[in-house]
Each structure stands twice: as C-alpha cells, then as structure tokens.
From TrEMBL:
Matching InterPro entries: PIN-like_dom_sf (IPR029060), PIN_9 (IPR041120), PIN_dom (IPR002716)
SUPFAM superfamilies on file: PIN domain-like (SSF88723)
Keyword annotations of the record: Hydrolase
GO molecular function, one term: hydrolase activity
Residue ranges of every copy of the PIN domain listed in the record: 2-106
Protein name as it appears in the record: Putative ribonuclease VapC4
Pfam family, one: PIN_9
Native source organism of the sequence: groundwater metagenome
EC number(s) recorded for this UniProt protein: 3.1.-.-
Length: 127
C-alpha cells in the first residue's frame, strides 16, 4: 500500500479552495494510506490564532482522524522543521508528499520523491 504524507499547507486547501483532499488524493493513489506528521499538529496550533484556515484544518483532521495515521517524530534525529523531517521520511520510505510549498517541492524533486500538488487552484494532481 502506497503511503502519502500530507504537508501542513495542503491541509489548508479544503477551506481555501473547497476541495476534499482525501477524496482527490484517493483518486490519484487508490488504496493509499494517509500520513500526517505529528509536527503538523504543532504547526497548525501555532498559526491557528492568526489564520481561520488553520483552525478549520485542525477540525478537518479531527473529523477525518480515521483516514490517516500520525507519524511520530524520531526524537533522536533533532529535525529543525517539519519539512526537514518530511524530506527524510519520504526519501527513506518512498512515500509520496502532498504539498503546495514551492521550496519543499523543489527539494523533493531533487531527491526523486513524488509529489501531489494543487493545480490552477481547482484540482489536485501529481506535481
């Protein structure tokens, strides 16, 4: 079963663009397992006071908690950012990453990790 990491910014898509990311990704990668990094929750908590979409993203994660697995950080590796951890985990495990972060997409491409991204603000597709 292919595993797909959902980056923090990708969780903002349902509120901003009214797309069901879990459904759309399932069309691209049937039978996939969704992964949300534990650091993603910390990032969303940190920005929820300033951004309504972050608060809604946390509610979406709560609503769909049966659709994803939380990936616990490797405390021995001392990652500086969630993106750094995503790069490492995705490369080591051949996971696909859903992100709309241009810098992260570029870094993932450099290490041959597949991406899924938002296209034309209206659909989700391979990056």
């Amino acid at each position: 079963m292919k595993k797909v990491i959902i980056d923090t910014n990708f969780l903002l898509i349902p509120e901003k663009f009214h797309l069901d990311i879990f459904y759309e990704i399932s069309l691209l990668v049937p039978g996939c397992e969704f992964i949300v990094m534990d650091g993603t929750f910390r990032e969303l908590e940190g920005i929820k006071k300033d951004r309504n979409a972050a608060n809604i993203s946390l509610k979406i994660l709560e609503k769909f908690k049966d659709k994803y697995t939380v990936y616990e950080s490797n405390k021995d590796k001392n990652y500086k950012t969630v993106d750094e951890e995503i790069l490492d985990v995705a490369k080591d495990n051949s996971f696909i990453v859903c992100t709309d972060d241009k810098d992260l997409k570029r870094k993932l491409k450099e290490i041959d990790v597949g991406t899924i991204t938002l296209k034309h603000k209206s659909r989700i597709d391979f990056g």
